[in-house]
Design a protein that fits this description.
The structure holds two protein chains of two kinds. In chain A, helix 3 packs parallel to helix 4 and helix 5 packs parallel to helix 6. By secondary structure, chain A is α/β, with parallel strands linked by helices. In chain A, the strands form four sheets. A seven-stranded mixed β-sheet of chain A has the order 12-11-10-9-13-14-17, with helices on both faces. Chain A has a five-stranded antiparallel β-sheet with strand order 5-6-2-1-7. Chain A has a three-stranded antiparallel β-sheet with strand order 4-3-8. Chain A contains eight helices and 17 strands. Chain A is 27% helix and 31% strand. Chain A folds into two domains: 101 residues, Translation factors (Elongation Factor Tu (Ef-tu), domain 3, Beta Barrel); 111 residues, 3-Layer(aba) Sandwich (Rossmann fold). By secondary structure, chain B is of the alpha/beta class. Chain B folds into three domains: 116 residues, Fumarate Reductase Iron-sulfur Protein, Chain B, domain 2, CATH 1.10.1060; 163 residues, FAD/NAD(P)-binding domain (3-Layer(bba) Sandwich); 151 residues, 3-Layer(bba) Sandwich (FAD/NAD(P)-binding domain). The longest helix of chain B has 20 residues. Chain B is globular and about 65 Å long. Classes of the chains: A alpha/beta, B alpha/beta. Chains A and B meet through helix 1, strand 8, helix 7 and helix 8 of A and strand 7 and helix 12 of B.
């Protein structure tokens, strides 16, 4: 059992947990992920590591409640409760070097895993420009940590309720078009956002890194469910990634593979909601 | 008068069993076991012992069965084999002990595997026969991977008095025995029983530990451990490398079986892991894993389950019993057939284009090489395809252990007798060394490495 040390609601159906797993915390580096399983009948889901604390042995993850497992975690797992299985750190760590000027683009819940990368890049001596975006101000989170991690931060919302109105890719294009010399871009968020960011940077020839969140089971190279096409070859997001060169990733295939279990996931979620009609915190 | 044929084993009716995940062969009764034990000639040469990768004293245990002293039979088996209930079910006996049985020269060989299973199951019903454990040696050994090689090595080392910690990356111990081999062939309760028996000996098993990520081998050896055994297996699934292979509905056999076995997707939505099985399922490959996948597909509701294999029936690498069971259950065989392309609609497979093959001269593996017949393309409809063409070495240890010698295929280079690698104190065995092979061969390697580690620590 891996105890939950802290649980905070950071946005609508978005929660931040700190889970006690000292061996994982000690070994984890930015860009890596965990696989967790809540209970005996649970599925294994990957969660990107947001932060670690060697003193408490805590690992921070941010979870968007989109399916049965994440909703159940929000409803039933509070501070002091135990998660049955936590394994990690998995995947290759981000390549952190002194590149020069780096733009870190985070969309939606992707802001969370971007944060430790931005912080590490700045600590490595880069000038870090952050661009974070969400549907509206209500959905925006981690603005303060990102502001502290970056040299400058741009906020975008679809409706203009916070920062500028528009998509993160709009701001990315604006900065690139301004003529600023950019040495590398990180983009983490929904697949469609990462795809658009990749297309935005491609004409400028700026190397762009994305973090692939495909469906996976073991997270260690055994199932192949997470396979993505990178430069025409099959790569496993779990052991070859999760980060890849955005200009080489086949995003259309990624999106179609991410949608494979939509019906089953909807069925599982409906069944859970029927059986748990009064998830007290559900409508927060 | 010796019976010419083996005492048959009762099994679930094929029409019934395709609707459940319960075990197919039902085991011998004591009288059936004794009738079979009486067929053993007790020949002095006992070629069966050399045919067994862990060298069980087969004539001796069979003699004890014949005398109805089953506890003594179990003890004899356990001297050599830490996982008898597993081996009695999944060993390819026809190419090992039974393949060289003296009786088999004229009649059917003694059903050694069935007798082993009988003894192991008797033990479960009666009394646990614990092997003795030597006094604590003061040495600690790390075992990486709780599959057949690792569990065997752990048991052997513990019996010799060493403290043993097994590091397993999944949430359950057993390796391929829990994620790969289906419930209907090897009930998970049996694996758990064998693992619990090791725990009772004092073996510590830590799950959710990814050596190469959570800790490295170097950290383990710099810490409390005096030696390490790597038994991380062949876990990286191979694909065919043909167009359309990443469409939805195309699974590696590892994924298909892991979802079903380890994650119990056959109980979805009571369990949370889904699996997609169409009306028509094709499984590419001819080994035990392919048979397991094709038979699993039927149990998950497929109307048609077809094995597609590029050679002929004679070359099928699966155990004869698995092929037989698959046929009984209605699995169809498209032999001398090679997939060349998957195509689909909306990102999901709906058909597989194939070529017919013929057999040419023997290749490096000694089997006749399949050669494509020009212009023989044809199409098979399928909503699910399972790729069961083998696995490569699990990559994480190899990537994280500097200086460890690996061969061209990425397998660890280890001494065939001792399992010693080029790194001092680091041993390896099982599929991570040999490439994908059998449970019992991995166990044999685990056992030999444990003996070598014991010699190292005693020195």
């Amino acid at each position: 059992m891996y105890r939950i040390l802290s649980k905070e609601t950071v946005g609508p159906a978005i929660r931040e947990y700190i889970v006690e797993a000292p061996e994982v915390a000690r070994a984890a580096r930015p860009g890596q992920f965990l696989v967790i399983r809540l209970h005996e009948d649970g599925e294994r889901i990957p969660l990107t590591i947001v932060d670690t604390d060697d003193a408490t042995g805590g690992i921070t993850v941010v979870v968007q409640e989109v399916g049965k497992t994440t909703l159940e975690m929000g409803d039933r797992f509070g501070v002091g409760d135990g998660i049955l299985d936590v394994v990690g750190p998995l995947g290759e760590a981000s390549e952190i070097e002194r590149f020069g000027t780096v733009i870190c683009v985070g969309g939606g819940v992707g802001i969370a895993p971007l944060f430790p990368i931005a912080r590490a890049l700045r600590e490595a001596g880069n000038r870090v420009i952050g661009i974070i975006g969400a549907r509206s101000q209500e959905h925006l989170f981690y603005e303060e940590p990102m502001r502290n991690a970056c040299d400058e931060l741009h906020v975008m919302t679809d409706d203009g309720s916070a920062g500028d109105r528009g998509f993160v890719s709009d701001k990315l294009r604006e900065i690139l078009e301004s003529g600023l010399s950019v040495d590398r871009v990180w983009a983490i968020g929904p697949a469609i956002m990462m795809k658009v960011c990749a297309e935005t940077t491609r004409p400028f020839g700026v190397k762009t890194i994305v973090s692939i969140n495909s469906v996976m089971i073991d997270g260690t190279g055994m199932c192949g469910g997470c396979r993505v096409e990178v430069a025409g070859a099959a790569k496993f997001a779990c052991v070859d990634g999760p980060e890849f060169d955005a200009h080489e990733v086949n995003f259309d295939l990624l999106m179609s593979r991410q949608a494979l279990y939509c019906e089953d996931e909807a069925c599982s979620l409906e069944r859970y909601k029927m059986r748990n009609p009064v998830g007290e915190e559900r409508d927060q | 008068m010796i019976a010419r044929e083996q005492t048959p084993m009762r099994q679930q009716d094929p029409a019934v069993r395709v609707g459940n995940f319960d075990e197919v062969p039902l085991g011998y009764s004591e009288d059936e076991a004794i009738a079979e034990a009486e067929r053993c000639l007790q020949c002095p040469e006992a070629p069966c012992i050399a045919g067994c990768p862990v060298r069980i004293d087969i004539p001796r245990f069979i003699a004890r069965v014949k005398e109805r002293d089953i506890a003594a039979a179990v003890a004899t088996i356990r001297e050599a084999n830490a996982l008898p209930a597993v081996c009695g079910r999944v060993c390819p006996q026809e190419t090992q002990c039974q393949g060289v049985c003296t009786l088999g020269k004229r009649f059917e060989p003694v059903a050694i595997g069935r007798l082993e299973r009988f003894c192991a199951d008797w033990e479960e019903q009666h009394e646990a026969v614990s092997p003795s454990v030597a006094p604590d040696s003061g040495h600690c050994v790390a075992v990486i991977g709780a599959g057949p090689a690792g569990l065997t090595a752990a048991g052997e080392l513990r019996r010799r008095g060493h403290a043993v910690t097994v590091f397993e990356l999944l949430h359950a111990a057993g390796g391929v025995l829990v994620y790969g081999i289906p419930e209907f062939r090897l009930p998970k309760a049996i694996v758990k029983r064998e693992v619990d028996a090791l725990r009772a000996l004092g073996v510590e098993i830590k799950v959710n530990q990814v050596i190469g990520r959570t800790h490295t081998i170097r950290e383990l050896l710099d810490g409390q451990f005096d030696a390490a055994f790597i038994g991380t297996g062949a876990g990286l699934p191979r694909f065919l490398g043909v167009p359309g292979e990443h469409l939805g509905g195309v699974y590696s056999a590892n994924e298909f079986l892991t979802r079903t076995n380890l994650m119990r997707a056959y109980r979805f939505p009571e369990t949370d892991t889904p699996i997609r099985v169409g009306e028509r399922v094709v499984t590419v490959g001819g080994g035990n894993v392919a048979m397991d996948a094709a038979r699993t597909a039927l149990r998950l509701g497929a109307r048609e389950s077809t094995i597609v294999y590029r050679r002929s029936e004679a070359e099928l690498p699966a155990r004869a019993e698995e092929v037989e069971h698959a046929k009984e259950e209605g699995v169809q065989f498209r032999l001398l057939t090679q997939p060349i392309r998957f195509s689909g609609e909306n990102g999901t497979i709906h058909e597989m284009e194939c070529l017919r093959m013929e057999l040419g001269e023997p290749d490096g593996s000694g089997r006749r090489r399949p050669i494509p017949l020009e212009g023989s393309e044809f199409t098979l409809r399928a909503e699910t395809a399972i790729i069961a063409v083998g696995n490569g070495p699990h990559p994480l240890i190899l990537r994280s252990t500097d200086g460890l010698d690996v061969d061209r295929r990425g397998n660890i280079v280890a001494d065939a007798e001792t399992g010693a690698t080029n790194l001092p104190g680091v041993y390896a065995g099982g599929d991570i060394v040999t490439g994908a092979a059998t449970v019992i061969e991995a166990m044999g390697a685990g056992k030999r490495a444990a003996e070598a580690i014991d010699r190292l620590l005693q020195a």
